[in-house]
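Open question from group meeting: does this chain pack into something compact, or does most of it stay loose? Before anyone orders reagents, we agreed to write out a predicted structure and look at it together. Recording both the input and the output here so the notebook holds the full record.
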Amino acid sequence: MAAAGISQLGFVTWDRDTPTGGTVYDQNLVTELRALGIAVRLHQLAGPWPETDASTQANLAQALRAQPACLVDGILAGASPEVVAAAVESGHAVTLVVHLPISDELGLDPARRERYAALEGQAVRAASGVVCPSHWCAGELRQRYGRSDLGVAIPGVTPAPAAPGSQHSGGAPRLLTLASLTPTKDQLTLVRAFARLTDLAWSADLVGFDVADPGYAARVRHEVAEAGLKDRISVTGALTGSALDQRWDAADLLVLPSRVETFGLVVTEALARGIPAIVSAGTGAVEALQQGATVPTDAVQGTAGPTDAMQGTAGPTDAVQGTAGPTDAMQGTAGPTDAMPGTAGPTDAMPGTAVPPGDPTALAAVLRRWLTEPTLRRAWQQSALARRGNLPGWQRTAEAVLSYLERPQQPLSTPTGSPPALPPMTPPVPPRPAPSFRS
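Structure tokens returned:
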């Protein structure tokens, strides 16, 4: 049933079919909005986004004005603030859906990064609204660009059967990484961690789109070979359908070593299969790892007080509304007990842990513990299995987006408990040739 006030909506995205967290989010959001009775007109625009020219900007301008209100993927609108502003000034409601700030992609030269950040800030401020996939992302945008009325619509997850893992095959533990092969996703750190674990039995699949940055993908394969790990690590390229399902079924642990991550949909996809995960500390993937908890997330992360956590808040009202509260109230990383053991608080175990990004030694230490301590492996797996029935679905995401679009003044976010603490802003990174978005 359509929500009062909204019966039709445009959705402007790019024409890329590569399965990424952003494209999966967009596709499921469109499906669920339509299921709620919203007539969604999808506009898929070709172009080297976020880069634009006169032709792509004209196409974007036309799409933004095709309906009275529209959602637009941030990778299209982020570098086109004048197009967004003109559409809003002409009476059209334009809401950005920001999966990853366009200036956060690793490999950008400093001048391009600075240009993207300036353009995206203008676009964020010019838009009628901004929807983010996590409280972490909302906090980053609020901190950078000074906009406070940001909506949060946590990604849903499609239910899946529990993964049999190596217990079914009787083989060595098998690890999975599912992400495009790019510096942002940082598979090289994982390969270097694996190289420190050759005395133990394990195998791994590195699955993901490998043509966005061919040079980086080649480096990953080269380091696998140089470390003598070709018999242990399979670098598959992108997989879909039954081929991907087979990798999920074989997995005992997901590792997502991203340098930057606004949420990490693959983490909740792992939890839906009862697979625990290791993620990067100080990123939105920590928020993904908290999904499905049946007790206050603060018991795990040590942020807000127990009363606020029980109510699904973190103190300031703006955090409940999806705007990420003051950064000094949320310092952003778990304590040392939570970070290494992965046993979380006294009332609920975390289905995994977070490690410092870009640190192969720290990652190898956590992996060694997981590989050598059966009690830890069982605790993580049991926690992941317990989360399966509590994960939000995509209808909840669509409802959060609709609530935000219909807000009188304040946005409304998905009720998923306390937002995690906000990490520092992403530091500068060494330049590389400009990659193809989105990773």
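Observations to bring back to the group:
The two ends are 35 Å apart (CA to CA).
The chain is about 40% helix and 15% strand.
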